Every structure is written in C-alpha cells, then in structure tokens.
Amino acid sequence: MSTVPTSQVVANQGRTTGGLIYIVILGIVGVGIAAASWTWEFGFCGYGIAGFFVFMFGLGMVRTTTQGGAWKADCPGCGATLTSDEHPFGMRAFKVVRCGACGEWWGGTELLQPLDIDYVHNDPIFEAKAALPLTWPDGCARCGEPATGTVGLTAVSDAANLASAAGVTTLGGTHIDVPVCSKHRQTPVSVRTTGDKIGVEFRSYRIFCQFKELNAGPEAGAAD
Known about the structure:
Helix content is about 30%, strand content about 25%. It has three helices and 16 strands. It has helices spanning about 15-40, 45-65, 205-215, and strands at about 5-10, 10, 70-75, 80-85, 95-100, 105-110, 110-115, 125-130, 150-155, 165, 170, 175, 175-180, 190-195, 195-200, 220. The longest helix is centred in the first third of the chain and has 28 residues, at about 15-40.
C-alpha cells in the first residue's frame, strides 16, 4: 500500500512578528493623523485618512486573531518551501496551495496532503491551459454536479476579465459550450486567452483535473 505524502505546517514566528509590527505601526499612524487633524483642524480629509489607517489596523488584527499568523511547510511532493507569503492563508485556516516547483496541489490546515479530488473552492483558482478546440468533462464546470445544459462564454485577453452570459458566442471562430448545472448558469468558469492557448479557471478540482486529461495535458497553474 502506497504512503500518502504529507508535510507538517509550522508557524513562521519571525514573519508573524514582522507582520504584527507593521499592523501596529498602521494603527499608530492612524491615531497620529487623527490627533493632528483635531489639533490643526485638517477637517474631513484628515479624519478620512486616519480612518483608513485605523481600519487597516483593525482588519490586520482580526485576520491574525481568527486565522493565525504566518506559516511555512515543505512541499509533500518535492520538498520545496511553501510559505504564507505566496499563499495568503493564516496558520489556522484551511490552505489550498500549489507548489511552484512541481506544480502539484495540496490542502490542509496543520498537515498538507494531496488535495481532495472533490474539493470546490469559492473562487476559480485552478487554471488549465489548452489549445482549441476544448473538450469538456461530464459535470458542471463550476461545482462538478451533473450538468443539465450549457452556456456560451467569451474569452478575452490576459489584461481583461471574463465576459460571459447565457447564449451563443464565438472565440476565434470556434463556439464554446460550457456544461453547467441549473444552479450555475452564470459565470461557471473564468476564461481568458493566454498567447496561443485558452486559460480556463475552475472552482472544482475534480473538473479541473479531468479537463487537463481530456485536453492532452495542458499546462496548469494558479489563477492570477
């Protein structure tokens, strides 16, 4: 029986301390600007700037308190270092990370291991690149549930976002029908042009993996 590769997630105390110092400085700057605004009557503009710094201080403290501080781990596959600098998840949060060295996806809170094939993320982070024509796996391209129909999508350049709507659209003279369930007819995936290929960004890890296999193993990566 094969052993499942895993890696322990450990606290990156130095990075956490640095982050807390930065957050406290934001709060001090905010209070200082507020005091100066009151003393020299800078008016609404001064209080607005102070409020921004205080808000960022509060947001940083809440995130650190609820999700934990910085972390690091070795990639379970190749041993490369994974950190919260590249993957913005807190120490106590469930992490979904892609190793930039080996390209594999991992998931976990205190222990990284192969990502559950049925995992569905809130945002389209699983990107596969393929040449036209595209071949779609069975199941909704967003959640992986049984598909009940299709929608048409329009891919745009790397500098633009997806423009999608139910109906007939074309891309390079090729019609693209994306399978969807009844709940996800609007924006099931994100699509963009990346050079001579199409980048398709999925929420469903299962559909992402099946799409790669059906499209001759296109390059895969993390969505920008």
